[in-house]
Structure formats: C-alpha cells, structure tokens
Amino acid sequence: MKTSQKKYKFAVIATDVVIFTVQENQLKILLIKMKKHPYTNYWAAPGGLVKPAESVDRAAQRNLVEKTGVRNVYLEQLYTFGKAERDPFGRVVSVAYFALIPSDGVKLQTTAEYGDVTWFPVGKLPKLAYDHEEIIKYALNRLKAKLEYSNIVYGLLPKEFSLSDLQNMYEIILGKKFDKRNFRKRILSLNLIQRLRKKRRGVANRPAELYSFESRKPRVVKVL
Amino acid sequence: MKTSQKKYKFAVIATDVVIFTVQENQLKILLIKMKKHPYTNYWAAPGGLVKPAESVDRAAQRNLVEKTGVRNVYLEQLYTFGKAERDPFGRVVSVAYFALIPSDGVKLQTTAEYGDVTWFPVGKLPKLAYDHEEIIKYALNRLKAKLEYSNIVYGLLPKEFSLSDLQNMYEIILGKKFDKRNFRKRILSLNLIQRLRKKRRGVANRPAELYSFESRKPRVVKVL
DNA sequence: TCAAAAGTGTTCGTGCTACACCCATGC
DNA sequence: GCATGGGTGTAGCACGAACACTTTTGA
After folding, report:
1. Residues of A in contact with B59 (CB under 8 A)
2. Tens of pLDDT along A47-85?
3. Which of A163, A160, A139 minimizes the C-alpha distance to A76?
4. Does A199 contact strand C, using a CB cutoff of 7 Å?
5. Which of B5, B54, B77 has the CB atom closest to A90's CB atom?
6. Mean pLDDT by 10-residue block, N- to C-terminus, for chain B (224 residues)?
7. Sign of torsion, CA B201 B203 B204 B208?
8. B218 DSSP 8-state letter
9. In A, which residues are within 8 Å of B51 by CB distance?
10. Does the nearest atom of strand D lie within 7 Å of A208's Cβ?
C-alpha cells in the first residue's frame, strides 16, 4: 500500500438499496433485521461494502441479487449519505440506490425463508437502523417524483397488465385517485404501452384488455 | 485500526465540484490545470479527498472555498461516480457536486491569480481529466432540468436584478429564447421575486425595475 | 433627437377537468 | 340474473402561445 493511499484511507464505501414492490395494494419495502449492537432488532435496507475491484453500481447490483435473488430489475442511484457519524462502527459512506420489483413476485428467494427479511408497507415501517429512515424518505420522494415524469412504473408491473393495474400503481404510490377516462387518455396518448389484443381470463367480470410496455428502458416523459 | 476496517479499506472518497457562473452572456465552468502524469495539461473540476472526521458535504464545501474563496453559494450533490478504473492513481470514488456562483463575481480569490485556474465557456471546454467530461455533462443536464422546476437561478443572480437579467439567465443556459411578455407574466405569477421599487441608474436607456428573490432557499416550483 | 433596452394586453387555440352509463364475464 | 370491475365521449374552461408598439433614459 502506497503512502499516499495510507494517508487518506479512512472511509469505507457501502451501498444500501431501498427495494420497492407493490403487494396487496400497498407499496412495500424490503428490510432486514439486524443483529449487531447497538442496532439489535432494528431493521435496515439491505446493504454491503463495495469490494476492491468492483464499481459502486455493481456492488449495489450484487447486494440486490444476494438479498432477493432477482436480476434485471430497475435499479437507480439515489444519493450518497456521508455524515461522519452515521455509522457507529466506523467511517462508512453509503451510496444509496433504489430498486423496483414487479408486483407479480419474480419469486424472491429469501423473502419467505427467513423471518429476518420482510416486506413492510411504507406506512408501517419498524424501527430503522443508522440513517435509513432518511434514506427511505429520500427514496420515496424520488419514486413519487419519477412516476410523474418518467416511465419507470414498468419496473413495478408484470410484463402484461391492464390499464386498471397501471392506474392502481399510480394511485397507491401517489396516494390519490385519478379519473379513469382521463387517466387512460393520457397514458395512451404517450405511446408508452401497446395493446396485446389479449384479455385476462378467469375473472368474474368483464375481462380487461392487456397491455405491455413498448420499451422497458428508463425514459423521461411527462406522465402526469 | 481495527481488523474489520483494514479488511475493507480499499477505496478513497473524493469530492469534485462543478462550479457554474454566467459571465459575458456565457455559461462558464471553473477548471484547474493538472500537473500529474498522465493528465499533465489536462483540466479538471476542482476536487479533493474527504478527511477522516469530515462529512462528504462538508468536504465539498471546503473544496469550493479553498478553490474560489466563496462561501454561502448554492451547492448540491449531483451523483456519485464509482467505476473501479476511473482514477489511474488508485481506487477513488468521487461524489460530485455542482455549485452556482452569482454573475456579479463575489470576487473569486484565485481566478485571475493563477493561470491554471480558469473559467471556460461550456461550449469550449478543454481536454478533461478522469471522467470529468461525464461529470460535467451530468451537471449541465441537472442544472438545465432544475431551472425548469425550481427557483435555483437565484444562485446565479446578484441580490438585485432586472427581469431581463433573469430572462437572460434562462436563455443562456437553456439555449433558447422566450417571449418577453409571457416570461414576465409567468415569473411574476409565481411570487418568487419581489419588486424593490428601485431602478437601475446610469444606463443609456430606459432604466429597469429591480427585483430580488423572496427567499434564497431551494424550492421546487414549475417555472417553465 | 437618436439609440437602446424596458415595459405592457389581447386574442386564439388547445389541452386539462369534470362527469355517468353500458358492457362482458363467472358464478 | 346479479355482482364485479372494464370500457367509453363530450362540453366547458383555464392556461399557454403568439404577437407590436410606446416609454424612458443617457449621450
């Protein structure tokens, strides 16, 4: 190790990922129960240190895969939290990310298996470790803002979905209702989604037309 | 130094600040000429390592003060650049910030003194070191976006300014013209600025009414 | 009196909002 | 046939866009 490195090496870099999904008409976040004092039985967004040869983005991805087993989901850097005293174990700077997981599950490996990895509705979060309350608030705001001016809802929806499903996502996350006819006109005029000419079967009501996203790449569009 | 720290200590944290100002009807960025190989005579946004007991935000502030002598200017975290190979000298993760300096100068200490610290118009940037081209592009996009939905122009304007000064800022940075009457109506309807009932004297034309910002705190507002 | 920038209203079109009823299916 | 969510059109209004001339000053 070179002197110049030794001289300045004092902060460790970690990533924390705020993982969102929608289940049972609620927006939820995946949290892990901590064991280490002083945060025993506090909960935290999954996180981990960045490895020597690994980019920060890649560390966040790895972190996500290790905790949930999901790949290829929406993942975006959020903000870097760098207060000197944010971690009682030492100087840790956290690069926070947020991830979106489709509401049809993509079967998470760890979810049901361990009691210490659980989805919490954003309205009923437990005691949070570190500055994770701040990080989660930040993530929520970003998510809400991005729904309005981008197409990233695709990250929360399954491949095929109805216009009502889509509208529901917006209503659940933004916490307000929209007029059905106006909402549909808006969305369809943006050319973000395409009709599949397929209907959802097996429901005790008129079957919904199914749609899919033209592209599952992030794009800025004024949606609302 | 504890073992757990030793084990993971491999990346150094730095901050880089993209400093904007408007001079001579051009948007400019402050850059520093580098000496170290392999970037001899390349230019870089001012940066520096984060000290042990210092928050990342504070490091960015310090960095800004040391390079320009200005305090209390608009400073916002931009994004964290964490590719493993971004710095040939070692593993350095950079938390990038951008700063806005009022167009009336706030007399920068270092600007004219050293030939190796210079304002460059964003359209005519020199060879840039590291990934600073990417960082600056990112900063530019953020700045443009934020002009549209926040009041942060205040960071670029002096305490007192005319509506034409304000419109000019928008035109210079966004690179398009606005209709004078519509622009004024828009701005005035937002209640972001107040008339000072004072006019600018000493110009060979009709003197402009002067205004100031109601508040110089960042606020999200749809401006355009 | 001239040059230069400041200041000021109205018209037109369009895009957002509000609103209620019929339809298709499974049970 | 009934309960459940799916699907559809229009009218009014508010807001954004386009547009040209008069005013005030210093030189």
Report:
1. 82
2. 999 988 899 999 999 999 988 888 889 999 999 999 999
3. A139
4. yes
5. B5
6. 39 92 95 90 93 93 88 95 89 95 72 71 96 98 96 96 97 96 95 94 93 95 93
7. negative
8. -
9. 10
10. yes
């000064």: which residue's tokens? B165
Alpha helices in B44-131 (DSSP H): 56-68
Structure tokens, A79: 């903000």
Tokens of B140: 């530019």
Tokens found for residue A177: 């209702």
Report how far residue A117's alpha carbon sits from residue A114's, in angstroms, rounded to the nearest whole number. Answer: 6
- Could you give the 3-state DSSP secondary structure of residue B213? strand
> CA-to-CA distance for B142 and B78, rounded, in angstroms?
8
Instruction: Give residues with Cβ within 8 angstroms of A43, minimum separation 6.
Output: A31, A32, A33, A34, A118, A120, A125, A126, A127, A128, A129, A132
Per-residue confidence (pLDDT) for residue B91, from 0 to 100? 86
The answer to whether the Cα torsion of A222, A212, A210, A25 is positive or negative is negative
- Record the tokens describing residue A10, joined without a space: 């004092």
Nucleic acid strand D within 7 Å of B207 CB: yes
Tokens of A5: 């490195």
SS3 state of residue A95? strand
Kindly provide the residue ranges of all beta strands, DSSP E only, lying in chain A, ordered along the sequence: 12-23, 26-33, 43-44, 47-49, 74-81, 92-100, 117-121, 193-199, 209-213
* Cα(A17)–Cα(A99) distance, integer angstroms: 7
